[in-house]
Amino acid sequence: MELGLHDKVALDNTLLQNWYACGINLTKAAVDSLATSFLNNPEVIQPELAGTLSAPGVYIGQFTANPIQDTFFNSTGWTKGQLFVNGYNLGRYWPVAGPQTTLYVPKPYIQQTNTILLIELVGTTQNTVSFIDMPSTGFE
User: Fold this and answer.
1) Which residues lie below 8 Å from residue 98, measured CB to CB, with a gap of 6+?
2) Cα distance between residue 66 and residue 114, in whole Å
3) Which pLDDT tens digit goes with each residue over 33-57?
4) Domain containing 105 — which CATH number?
């Protein structure tokens, strides 16, 4: 069985030419390195733009957990992407397609100070994340 693209690729009905597809290294070490490089170079981050653009991007931030316990990432307000907490890939979020709107964040992955990284594939005007204490399917 062949996987991948089998025909020409178009964007907004325009045939794409001279492009290539490549993989993205999403190992824990690679995600940790990416997050650290952004957090250690705050001049690359432009907080005045946060919440004004609706474009794909990488969103990185930190939060403090007190108490340290199981929690759930609430994807409401985000569009479609991948969630990492402290370098751990916790899954994909896509609240309009589901089936869930929350992602489980287990207690062993949580520390006093935590780094969150979202790879937003579509774009959003959201610039904050929230965690809740119960899962949600979005159909309650």
Assistant:
1) 137, 138, 139
2) 11
3) 888 888 887 665 554 555 555 678 8
4) 2.60.120.260
Torsion of CA 95, 109, 132, 27, to 10 degrees: -20
Q: Name the token pair of 89.
A: 């890939």
Q: Check pLDDT > 70 for residue 68.
A: yes
Cα distance between residue 115 and residue 100, in whole Å:
23
Q: Are strands 113-120 and 57-64 parallel, antiparallel or unpaired?
A: antiparallel
What is the CA 4 to chain-centroid distance, rounded? 23
With CA atoms as reference, report the closest residue to 77 among 93, 58, 60: 93
The most confident of the ranges 22-26, 38-42, 55-59, 102-106 is 102-106
In this prediction the pTM is 0.76
Q: 78 lies in which domain range?
A: 26-132
